[in-house]
Amino acid sequence: MTSFFSTPFKTSRNNNKSTFGWAIFGMFLLFSIVSNAQKKRDLLTAIIQKDVVESLDSTLYKPFEKKEFHNRLMNLPKDVQKKILSDAKEIMTYNWPSIPATAYLDYKRSGDRMGMEKYWSDGLDVLKKLVLAEVLEGEGRFLDAIINGSWAVCEQSTWVLSAHLPSQKGGAGIPNINDPIIDLGAGETASTLAWTYYFFKEDFEKTSPFLKARIPYEITHRIIEPYTVRDDFWWMSFKNENFVNNWNPWCNYNVLLSTLLLGNEVTPKVRKQVITKSMQSVDKFINYYKDDGACEEGPAYWSHAAAKMMEYLELLKTYSEGKISLSDAPIIKNMGTYILNAHVNEDYYINFADSSVRLHTYPGVVFRYGNYVNDTSLKQFGSFLANQENFYGSPTKGSLDVAIHNVDLYPSIQATPAIKATEMSFWYNGTEVAGGRTHKDPSKGFFFAAKGGYNDESHNHNDIGTFVLYHEGTPLLADIGVETYSSKTFGPKRYEIWTMQSDYHNVPMINGFSQAYGKKFKASQVSFQNSKSQLRFGLNVAGAYPESASCKFWNRTYTLKRTSQPELVIEDQFSLKEYKGESKQHFITTQLPVLVKAGEIKLKEKGGKSINFYYPAAIFEIKIEELPLTDKRLLTSWKQDKLYRIILIDKKKLLLNNYKLRIAEN
């Protein structure tokens, strides 16, 4: 039997191997098997084969000593230090709750995951604040509260989030303590406890050797042991390389970080196992990405997909003193710079897939990515975001791990010019996402983005051919985004949710049919052209609809014209085999559309300028609908309680036709 744990601390729990039953089906429905693996690059595996890992067996991870981190905290502005101490003082008597069994059952009973997750996130946030304050002050004032918090977290029956319990033996509901599984929640909990142990193990030892032993024991039992003996966690991607998402680098990073922070409490043999296995697993994530580096899951997931991969690679590079590095690999750089093009203006990002229109990207993580790949534009973007996100006043936002790195890099970020490099166009030919601007200044002119792809992407919406259009830095024609997650979001009823349906994206209903879900429903004949005067993106969307739509082809072309009065032209050419039902055009708008006259709709008026939508009145009848927003996530994202939908109903009922729609600044 492998010895995982250097300090003797026996367990009476059984480590029964989990099996995946029908209960996990709902979680995987969204992530169904597709033949979409890209290149078998195996960049990390190639390093393993050079026996580099063998030379690291006895190396211990010591990012910095407590005194060193204390000095970094002391270098923060006085008001930031004061805030760290005052926040911790307020929560010194925090009553660490036991997470009720019904909080876990809520997910199974009603689909509610947020109640349980609030217990989980509140606890980790309190522990983070206490750790930072005690390292800063160093007088022991917060130590008992840290002990109480660490002990309370260790006492929890599981660190796994309720929404992820379907993968345990027995399925969703009450946690199965005999089947420890690793999910995002367990990983984040482990890394927070591991940092706590790293800074305070000597203090714990002085209080009680049992206290010092507790955190390493729990991390070993719940994280390291299952990780090393199993290869069937779906996110490892050892069983299926055809779908890999952000869980892969996120979980692998937290497992590796926790293992390394425990130092001598983990044997060299097990440490090597974790390093090697994590490298083999993260290779699957890198292999899955297309060469263009675009995040299929959308920019909302970049921080915990490509950026989490960077954090993992950064950790490997630091630990190995540069022997394990992919800093020069083009795919790694492309995955980083994607976030630059996904940023529209201020806190707006292209929000395809399960992304919200407003995002708060971690400035320190963006800066670290720039450091890792030695990309000046990314480092400067990190500094730009730091100003935008009030990073300098609140550098400890996020997890304890993120906060520690933010504090460490605070002076470097502050010394870097805050510049956002703005490209006039971009084209991700593998992911089929295109876009561009009419003006170098993000607050002027139009910004446009559109997508092809297929209707089984990670965090998929049925949205082949959709687009967004911004005017003077704010959304004009929009992608609604995603509501608060529930069991329905990742289950067989996902496409009953209105925001997932093609009728609530800027795409047509063809012959009475909406787009269908599945890997075979995809764009074809995708093309992109760009010149100084215009950008053009075209595709055939017919393949995104079921056969019953009887559509031979439906070619859509977007042309963004960079003129003194910029405009977007949408041209549709189609051929139907037979008439079955109405064809409609849908456009989601952020402001109330006003019908000026037949064929002309005013979308926006500001500062003497109006943005009008022109359509052939001889072909279309028009209907304008209000779309009330009641979901908390949508309300927070949009900061308004309604959007609108323009519906153009084709009254000609022709089997073959072509027409143009035009959106222009007047």
Structure summary, number of beta strands: 21
Largest sheet features: 8 strands, antiparallel
Number of helices: 17
Low-confidence stretches: 1-37
Oligomer: single chain
Order of strands across the main sheet:
11-12-13-14-21-18-17-16
Whole-number mean pLDDT: 93
* Category from helices, strands and their pairing: alpha+beta
In which range does the helix fraction lie? 25-40%
Strand content: 15-25%
Overall geometric form: globular
| Tally of individual domains | 2
* Head-to-tail CA distance between termini: 76 Å
How large, in whole angstroms, is the Cα Rg? 26 Å
Transmembrane segments: 20-37
Subcellular location: Cell envelope
Pfam families: Hepar_II_III_C
Keywords: Membrane, Transmembrane, Transmembrane helix
Strand and helix map with partners:
Layout lengths: L24 H5 L13 H6 L17 H9 L3 H13 L10 H10 L3 H24 L5 H13 L28 H24 L1 H21 L17 H15 L6 H21 L17 H14 L10 H13 E3 L2 E2 L13 H11 L2 H13 L11 H16 L9 E4 L4 E5 L8 E6 L2 E2 L11 E5 L2 E4 L30 E2 L8 E5 L1 E7 L3 E7 L10 E11 L5 E10 L7 E6 L4 E4 L2 E7 L2 E6 L5 E9 L3 H7 L3 E9 L5 E10 L1
Q: Could you walk me through the main structural features you see in this protein, from its secondary elements to its overall organization?
A:
This protein is an alpha+beta fold. The protein folds into two domains: 1-287, no CATH class; 425-665, Beta-galactosidase, Chain A, domain 5, CATH 2.70.98. The chain has 17 helices and 21 strands. The strands form five sheets. An eight-stranded antiparallel sheet has the order 11-12-13-14-21-18-17-16, with no helix packed on it. A five-stranded antiparallel sheet has the order 3-4-5-7-8, with no helix packed on it. It has a four-stranded antiparallel sheet with strand order 9-15-20-19, with no helix packed on it. It starts with 24 loop residues before the first helix and ends with a strand. The relative contact order is 0.09. Keywords: Membrane, Transmembrane, Transmembrane helix. It is found in: Cell envelope. The chain crosses the membrane at residues 20-37. Its main location: other. It comes from Flavobacterium rhamnosiphilum.
